[in-house]
Amino acid sequence: MPNVVVVGAQWGDEGKGKVVDLLTEHAQVVVRFQGGNNAGHTLVVGGQKTVLHLIPSGILHPGKTCVIGNGVVVDPAVLVGEMDALKARGFLKEASHLLISDNAHVIFPWHKLLDTYREKARGGSAIGTTGRGIGPAYEDKVARRGIRVRDLLQPERLRKRIDERLPLVLEELRELCQKAGEPVPPLDAAQLQEEFSSLGEKLRPHVGDASLFLASQVARGARILFEGAQGTLLDVDHGTYPYVTSSNCVAGNAAVGSGLGPTAIDKVMGISKAYTTRVGGGPFPTELSDTLGEQLRRVGDEFGATTGRPRRCGWLDGVVLRYAVRVNGLSSLALTKLDVLSGIKTLQLCNAYELDGQRISELPGDYEDLGRVKPVYETLPGWEEKLTGVRTFDELPESAKRYVRRVEEISGVPVTCISVGADRGETVLLQNPFRS
């Protein structure tokens, strides 16, 4: 049976959570393979809204196993809070429903403090991080000084790791806080050990060898759904660097971040809005800084699920889509929030850029060049009809069908899923990726 990766094809916030929730019905295992609680996946089921930051979106389906892979950085307090909230609503009834890789790295309070004060020190050149400590945690991981989930389960080892890291952290914080004119926040090793050992005990029933578990699931023919966070253009290697996140968001990292080989992956579905959004700084060629951009933000409820920050909105960028197809090896696209475009008389769709008088059809590698490009648009007719009641492709207005088909032509891959509303049921699934 095929195993499927779901990744964002833009700058994140594409609606991956809804698509993962929808596809979980056809999978046995759902794996989150990168990022941290800087990502928020919003699900609406039966009119009830759920926002998940660490636990895979498939947790709302009974009898499924959700896995937090080694590629994720985990804030234990956030994770425990998320687990408690789900249990209070009748989910996560058994420990076996959630497996946390013992090799996942842990976010500590100092990571969040460093994140916040470094951003303050950058001033006008701030990246626009969420302040959740994601970047500093990955930094410690790569520097081979990180603390992993397995360490939380051994108090003596945990204290040793904290004692090794804390002096250097306090040294940097003193310098940063001095520049900010603020006192250094207190960080006590004994208190940190006690707090995080306690959190570790709450997580203990769920901690294990995720790689070994997933390999056994592959061997028995289980259907596995890999869930990415953020989006292609936020990938630390392949995004609009330095305005990116601190992990690899592309499909290739699904194997690395879960402990499986690349041959375990059969299909890759990219998620794209019917328009484009991004949060934070960085180039955005098709951004609309006018009343239409504000309309997209208002109608699409474009505010961050994690931070509440308003998202920058613009027309769909076909150049970005083609790039996402290439670096992820996309086999299909899910087009979300098509309903938000209802009522716009004329739609624009970017299919190329103009850079220094030359027309280009591929994404420039230098983000400064991307900041100078002018989008080359083609115009398509809009539609007035509301789409929330649509359940088949044939029910779409002709102009909406034409828009979808043009997205397929520009991207080079088929659109196999269309979202026409926030609820799980407001979706047109044209082709199930779990069926060969």
TrEMBL record:
Signal peptide: none
Residues bound to GTP: 12-18, 40-42, 311, 337-339, 419-421
Residues given in the record as substrate binding sites: 305-311
Keyword Cytoplasm: yes
CC cofactor: Mg(2+)
Assigned GO CC terms: cytoplasm
Binding site for Mg(2+): 13, 40
Active site: 13, 41, 141
Entry GO MF terms: adenylosuccinate synthase activity; GTP binding; magnesium ion binding
EC number: 6.3.4.4
Family: Belongs to the adenylosuccinate synthetase family.
Protein name as catalogued: Adenylosuccinate synthetase
Annotated organism of origin: Stigmatella aurantiaca (strain DW4/3-1)
Gene behind the chain: purA
